Amino acid sequence: MEQRYCFGIGLETDDTEYSEEMFTKGIAACGQNLLCVGTHDGSILIFSMPTESNTLNNVDKVHYHPAAISDLCGQGQNLISGDDQGNLVVWEGSTTLKKVKELESFQSPATSIACWKELVMVGYGSGHIRLFNITTGNKTAEITAHASWITAVDIALESGLVSNKFSCNVTNVQVCGGCFVNDVGSAFCTTGYDSYEILYFHM
Known about the structure:
Elements: E1 24-30, E2 34-39, E3 43-48, E4 57-63, E5 69-75, E6 78-83, E7 88-93, E8 97-103, E9 110-116, E10 119-124, E11 129-133, E12 139-143, E13 153-155, E14 162-164, E15 175-180, E16 187-192, E17 198-202
């Protein structure tokens, strides 16, 4: 039987006069047993979950982003992180994270990140969707079809189908978040802002 665990993370600051809201945003696996979590100050918390163990060990913390982490996406040994200023960083890690390269910044929040083979797809607060080559770091394509924030992007791993927040039309719901539920891309789920429901669509 598949086992699932739920862990809590307590955020701390050394600044006794720190008054801004502290939060986590973005969570992704990297390598075989690293779990990475983005935070309000641009740091990425790195945890290790050993095989055949139900404990989560705090391994390290890396700080490179000048703004809050907006999303994380892991693929194999790589992790891609984005922040509220549109900065994108490619990391590599097995025991901790090492910065490999930065991707071009477009000064708009990188709201959602998805990976497929050599491609990194990023949705932005400006409504743009941009594709980057993870190896070269070059931008390979740009989509300018949306007039408002992109709140979610996802790629079906087997078919390469792309889903974003405008892939469905739900009356009186501000669609927020969404992902495919299988690698073929024959079905996906989404939800709405302040909604307790998860909507399921089959194609």
